[in-house]
Amino acid sequence: MRELNITTREEGQRLDKILSKYLNKAPKSFVYKMLRKKNIKLNGKKATGNEKLSQGDQVCIYLAEDTINKFREEVKAGKQKIKLDVLYEDENVIMVNKPWGILSQKSKPEDISINDQIIPYAVNQGLISEKELQVVKPSICNRLDRNTTGIIICGISIEGLQTMAEMLKHRDMEKYYLCIVKGKIEGSQKVSAYLKKDEKTNKVKVSKQEIAGASHIETAYEPVISNDEFTLLKVELITGKTHQIRAHLASIGHPLIGDFKYGDKKINQEMKQRFGLKDQLLHCTEIVFPRDMKTCKNLSGKKIQAPLPKRFDMIKNDLFGRA
Q1: Buried b (16+ CB within 10 A) or exposed e, 58-72
Q2: What PROSITE patterns does the database record attribute to this sequence (predicted)?
Q3: What's the whole-model pTM score?
Q4: pLDDT tens digit sequence for 256-296
Q5: Which of 52, 54, 67 is nearest to 22 (CA)?
Q6: Domains of the chain, CATH where assigned
Q7: Which segments of 1-129 does DSSP mark as H helices, in order?
Q8: What does the alpha-carbon distance between residue 299 and residue 291 come to, in Å, rounded to a whole number?
Q9: What are the CA-CA distances from residue 180 to residues 58, 145, 229, 274 (Å)?
Q10: Nearest CA among 111, 135, 110, 124 for reference residue 80
């Protein structure tokens, strides 16, 4: 028999979700069967699995040790393989400044990503224990392309994971990016369009008119520095769709320099020869949280900022000077 005592870190999860994490090799049908047969009880009573857990709840698993071991694989923190540039951390969230070339999430088992490196970091820092890892899995809440740099939000508690997911879904935080684009932009603007992704080519198409299967997108921007050829742009990502900033700005005649997927071939070749630039200069530089947050209250009114990568800063200074 095993007992799971629910703490503030695990509360807010459904019972069936926490059981699926604890008995992580068991099919869902087995978990629900054990609930029906009262082999798993919540606070000494029969449960269905859809109950939302609170601090102090007790989950009892009345199974033989051999059965538990058969359906359970111990979750280990693993090794820290890359050093994380942590911008902010508390008991619920960690904000990481993702470098160029690192994946947000693995695409192959041998990949190194922010998502798998956040777990050993959190354990090593004492933000979560290996025991708590059995029922709570820290993970990233937003994703950036491999060659996009900047802020990634990671939840390390159920409160953090659920709060960040809801805020991202409902656009309750402000997200700002910096990029260098072709052409001179002199005024702030907010633009909208429709975006449709082609899964086969992993490219998106932007249209001013609504098209079948497309999502509505909104992007706001303001120039920071400009000359006759280029503009350093601060972009607010109002909606967050795949390649939105890159494709949306390209569609209005201001593609990102270095963006070989959506950009200007002639300018990209010039930037490649001049700076060795082979990918887009796009950096998530700032996230602003609203005041009076009901959960993750430490973040209320906070502004998280990520400094520019050295390469981005060097190219910016070369194109615009050190103003």
Answers
A1: ebbbebeeeeeeebb
A2: PSI_RLU, S4
A3: 0.87
A4: 999 999 999 999 999 999 999 999 999 999 999 999 999 99
A5: 67
A6: 2-70 (3.10.290.10), 86-170 (3.30.2350.10), 174-320 (3.30.2350.10)
A7: 15-22, 28-36, 65-70, 114-124
A8: 8
A9: 54, 17, 10, 15
A10: 124
